[in-house]
Amino acid sequence: MAMMNSLDLPGVALGFAQAAGLGFLIGRTREPAEGPPARAGLRDFVIIACLGAAGSQIGQAALTVTMAAAVAAILVAARYSPGGARIGVTTELAALATFLLGYLSMTPGRTLAALLGILLSFMMATKEQLHRFALQTISQREFEDTLKFLALIFVVFPLLPAGDFGPFGLFNPRKVWLFVILVSTVSYAGYFLARFLDPARGLALTAIVGGLASTTAFTGGVAKMAAEAPGAALALVRAACLGNAVQYPRLLLLLAVLSPALAIQALPMLAAMTGAGLLAAWWLGRSPRTASIEPGSMAFRNPFALVPALRFGAVFALILLGVRTAQHYFGAGGLLLSAGVGGLIDVDAVLLSLTEFFRNGIAPAPTVMGGILLGAAANSVFKSMLAATSRQPAFYIRLWIGFAAMLACGMAAFLLAIAA
Description:
77% of the residues lie in helices and 0% in strands. The chain is mostly helical. The longest helix has 27 residues, at 393-419. The protein is elongated, with a radius of gyration of 29 Å.
């Protein structure tokens, strides 16, 4: 069925101008160099785009299809003419896209046509950079893990059943999977920040990336480095405190996405813990001399590999079960107990579970904030145990002091908030 265009004369003129402009941009990227092989160039693409626009304006489907077929036939004939053989069909595909973009420029989808045309021109103009990025910069493992990441979002998520299942309606597959994606995306961004901004430039950058990815994994890695390089203990204390301080803005960001109202109430507590962590990093890491260490030795693997993502989903579901069960039988006290136990494993999962209860009206904001604080305290205990594996008192005792300072400031801000 033909699409009749109802644009007025200025609109028609603007549509043709846009079509010609897009043809110019795309054709400029395909303008052939002197000599063979021959291929369509700038003027050809402008004409092709205008033909598409004319077909759209006329509104005759048969004529438009005939014009498109004629353009394709001419391009094929030019491709296989004597001396015209080439490898690849980029020019032909670009010409077909240009015809369709010209057609779309005369419809209400004109803005979309402009966006797609500019994007196509950019991709074709940066051919060498894209090839280098795809084939040399990105490793095979990173590419495969990225495919898994996209599959988790666009393949698995739509296939999951909607609704609540299990005792107390604890298990909502789509909700659990959405939380997996939300938290893991932060780690994914942290991985590529380290990958492309070169963490060897300084421990501070490495600490920030580590705090974004996983404070537990980062603290364990720093403890291992401290065991191997005792002379760098103070520098590593500063990095560990900084990385753990970054955890609280990350939690605040998650809260802001899930429940802006709860994020506002938790802001003073999380801000106090962040400030204490930054101050501890500066104070506890002071040294009369600069200890050198190669931060690039801390390698981050792609956090969106399938197994870690599934493991987080399982942990989140188990914590949700424990919290719902405790809340059902013991009330708010049981909820906090479960938050403390869950915090030993993952503070993010505790935060996500408690936020869900707040949004559903099951737990008030002070209870949720107390649960988050308790989960952070439990997680700090676990990370303190990891720090002790370094067997370097200069490292782990100072880090314990840093954890205590962060928790004390968080507790003070929490008590002031509930007393107000």
